Amino acid sequence: MSLRILKPGILSTIQDLGRTGRRSLGINPNGAMDHTAMRLLNILLGNDENEAVLEMHFPAGEFVFGSECSFALAGADFSPTLNDVPIRNWSAIKAIPGDTLKFRERITGMRAYLSIAGGLEIPEWLGSKSTNLTAAAGGLKGRSLNAGDSIEFSTPHNTIKPRALGPSLIPKYSRFPTVRVIAGGEFDLLTAVSERSFLSGAFTLSNDSNRMGFRLGGEPLYVIDEIKMISAGVDFGTIQLLPDGQLIVLMADHQTSGGYPRIAGVITADLPLLAQLGPGDGVGFHLVSIDEAERSLLAFDRDVRFLNTGIRLTL
Amino acid sequence: MRIFPLGDSAATIEFGNEISHGLNDRAVALASHFTAAPFPGLIEAVPAYSSVSVFYDSVTVCREFPESKTSFSAVTSLVEKVMETIETATPGENRSVEIPIAILEDASPDLASICEFSRLHRDEVIDIFLAGTYRVYMLGFLPGFAYMGDVDERIAAPRLKTPRTKVPKGSIGIAGKQTGIYPLESPGGWNIIGRTDLNMFDPTSPEPCRLRPGDEVAFVLRSEI
């Protein structure tokens, strides 16, 4: 009973970086919405980057520690407290049995992550600990957390020296980010006016925005020719044009195939900015080359490797 | 053949934009090739009706193919090389799978409307459906949901105008030239002609999905109204 769930929160699931290799079977990778927050959080605690974490939405849960450990929080700021004393994100903190973790209010972002130094004892399904809610498999019994659940830690009493992450690698979260995109397979089918609207417009997340995808509201977009798309591949960050002229951005729990025109794809480096948005937030799109997208991805990967090396030297 | 980025961590190779055996053969062949002989950095190759999406780790591909300007261009070159050899290759072994189908009052809620669409008697509709062999073009929508075809055009009823909020697990449906089996209870807009009690998706199994792209499926009547 390393961690007891008193209140589960509105949607709390175990996630890692995703379950790859099974898209051909209609089994989507799922995984954390904000990969960057998750990776940085794990590195801070000396974990493998892919160590399973708890992804939480707001209202978040209430937890009681049953074992001594070091933990940290990242991503959204839900105003966390330990024994009613405010604590910070991005900071490794020690907990002893009986300590209570709560979240008072949502300050910024939509998904907060909790990781434990040494990781969580969660069985793998097809090589991953991510939760697949559709398949009802993976994570904690294929579902979100319920009151009364408990989660075990892989290495109890694994405490580390307190330390915190500096701001330089933390994404510049915003409630109205501009995210960089690469043109999609059907981008050229947009009318000239629609292309301008897409790249200069402001889009707002509708209430129909969740882990499967974000429905955006904005200037309706049109394609030059009536095209009949058949189901084809999509990915996390693919932006599709729906028949009503509005856009949907596919997120972590997207289905493995889609039959709507693919206008663009959000670059990996900017997915974390998107992942922290919720209904009512805004987003704008900026077109970049595949070259720039890859360079951003590689640059971040390099920074993360340096951080990892640096932290391990201090363990 | 068109190759374009699907974001910065995948490439889509499109052979056409229609549902045809020829185009699907190429898609399944290319995906199978990469699955059997992965390049460094490949995560997976996923066939769709007439295209393949290749997912890769850009960091690894960049490192392993330093002469390429981008990972995407490295993957494009690899695909082009492979396509030269695939054109002349013999098609792979496709599995034949039999699926028992029960056609019963509560298991076949749309049989009547398929009869209405086709203006054929129930027995004729059932015979036509059972006579077909359906290839699995791709999986998607749900874990283990196989898009199969082609359904005889006489009974190729279009999707329901209003999808059902709940289609029972194992339901077998028709949507135009496509047929599919719902591996889980789910919302759905296909015309339900029958049901199978065979488990199409079992997460506890090391091979969780019964069908995969390239399979040839035949339905065998198990019981009838």
Descriptive key words:
heterodimer; A: 315 residues; Cyclophilin; 7-stranded antiparallel sheet; 7-stranded mixed beta barrel; 4 helices; 21 strands; B: 225 residues; alpha+beta; Gyrase A, domain 2; 2 domains; 4-stranded antiparallel sheet; 4-stranded mixed sheet; 13 strands; 31% strand
How does this model look, in words?
The complex is a heterodimer of chains A (315) and B (225). The longest helix of chain A is centred in the last third of the chain and has 25 residues, at 290-314. Helix content of chain A is 16%, strand content 30%. Chain A is α+β, with helices and mostly antiparallel strands and 315 residues long. Chain A has 2 domains: 3-169, no CATH class; 178-294, Beta Barrel (Cyclophilin). Chain B is of the alpha+beta class and 225 residues long. Chain B folds into 2 domains: 2-86, Gyrase A, domain 2; 96-224, Cyclophilin, CATH 2.40.100.10. Helix content of chain B is 25%, strand content 31%. Chain B has 5 helices and 13 strands. Chain B has helices spanning 21-36, 58-64, 71-86, 111-118, 122-131; strands at 2-5, 10-14, 42-47, 51-56, 96-103, 133-139, 146-149, 164-167, 171-175, 178-181, 186-188, 191-195, 216-224. Chain B has a 4-stranded antiparallel β-sheet. Chain B has a 4-stranded mixed β-sheet with strand order 5-13-6-7. Chain B starts with a strand and ends with a strand. At the A-B interface, strand 16, strand 20 and helix 4 of A face strand 1, strand 2, strand 3, strand 4 and helix 2 of B.
